[in-house]
Structures are given as C-alpha cells and as structure tokens.
Design brief:
alpha+beta; 110 residues; 3-stranded antiparallel β-sheet; homodimer; DNA-binding
Chain lengths: 110, 110
DNA sequence: GTCCATACCTAGGCAACCTAGGTATAGCCG
DNA sequence: CGGCTATACCTAGGTTGCCTAGGTATGGAC
C-alpha cells in the first residue's frame, strides 16, 4: 500500500516519537509500527529525507562507522511544528472523507 | 484539499448513497457532504467518471433536455462491490496511519 | 441582450511516489 | 577463503493520478 500523499507526516511522526534514527531503521520502524502495511522502498524514503532536510524540517549527520557508516536524522523545531500541522491536516482529511462516506461509516475519533 | 488517491471511493460513495446523479450535481454533493473540503474541479471528476464507466463500475445515460441535457450516472453491481472494497481499504489505511501516529493519536472508530 | 450559472468535455502539465539499478561493507557458513 | 545475504546508502527516470486551462453550449435573470 502506498502512502497517498501522507509520506511526510509518517516520516516526521516516527522521527518525533522514536528519536533520531537512520534511513534504513526508519523504514523498518514504519513497517513495524504499521504492522507491515507501510513497507516503503528506499527509493521513496531517501529522497524524501533529503527533501525534508532541504526544507529545514530535519537535520542529519554522519555517524562514524560503528559498525557501519550511517546517516542519522533528527527533527528540527520547524520539523516538530510541521509534524503537528500535518497531523491536524490529516485529522481534518479523515473527518472530511468520513462525512462523505456517511454516518454509517462511523464517527471520527477524539 | 485534494483527494490523495481516494477519488474513486468518494465518487462511488456519493453514487451509492445519493442514487443516480449527473456530474455537476455530484461535484456539488461532494462539496456539501464534505463541508466544503472537497470542491473538485470538473477536470478531475468528468474524466474519473469516464474511467469508472470504462471499468464497468458505473453506467450512464443521457437525460432528455429537461431543463438541460445531462449525463446521469448510476452504480452497477460491480460498482457497489468496489465501493465496499474501497471502503474496507480506506479503513485499513486510516488504521495503519493511526498506528504509526501512535496511541496518543486516538483509536480508530468502529 | 448580456451575464452568470449550469452542464458537459479534453489535452497536456505537474507532483509524488516507485522501479530499477547502482555502490560498499559486515557477518555468516562451509 | 569465498560466496551469499543483510545492512546501508544513493539517484535517474518512469508511472500514476489529479489538476490547470481551455473549450462548447444552453437556460434564466435583470
């Protein structure tokens, strides 16, 4: 299943809750936390992280090779704000779809 | 706000609950039911309806000009099934995102 | 009789994501 | 040792899905 325009929210959420992490581990974390639903290819995640860094939402640094070279990403304060904003947007999106689906589709959670 | 890959579900849901309807009215219904969030351009909706018809999920017929010529769309039984399937997929998607967002993000509705 | 709303349509653009391929090292197993 | 798999990074270019921008035509209001 693809992420349907919500990739940034997912990445920022993992970084916010899980602390600094490198790309490969981020992919694994996303797979685990979504119970296997979001098993994103590297070609999706790495370019996205580079873009988020260009936008100032994350920063990265190279870790010395123990046991491998790794690029570790962390949220900036802009990133934390963006995460909150995107989560609000997500809720609003879900609520919009739910209301189109009809009352039988169930309420939106608190 | 765009529909993030869930256009078909939205269209099928309106057609399923609101009965046969023509394109322009479908756009209005979607706008109303989403409280203004989904105000889709005609260039999104008309091609999508044509595609759904090619796929056998809807059928259309021209209504005699009272007061205008209108192309009215209705769900086929395949369309009804697809709506259910896509709604299941939607729920599963929401649930996947929620679980990535963390317990604090609130449970998925019944 | 002009203007806006209704009602339909399509070609082409753009953004987001994925596919497919590449590099390099560590660790296991025979 | 020598091969294989897993880890870990990267990018060019294709595909998909929706939107932008433009077009046609009629009805009703003023």
């Amino acid at each position: 299943m693809d992420v349907r325009g919500h990739l940034d929210l997912l990445l920022l959420a993992v970084l916010a809750d899980g602390g600094p992490v490198h790309g490969y581990a981020l992919i694994a974390a996303l797979r685990d936390r979504s119970d296997g639903m979001f098993d994103l290819p590297e070609g999706t995640v790495y370019p996205a992280l580079h873009r988020l860094e260009r936008e100032g939402l994350v920063v990265s640094h190279w870790e010395p090779a123990v046991p491998r070279r790794r690029r570790v990403y962390a949220l900036t304060s802009d990133g934390r704000q963006a995460r909150v904003a995107k989560q609000v947007e997500w809720r609003s999106f879900v609520s919009g779809v739910q209301s189109v689906l009809g009352p039988a589709a169930g309420p939106v959670p608190a």
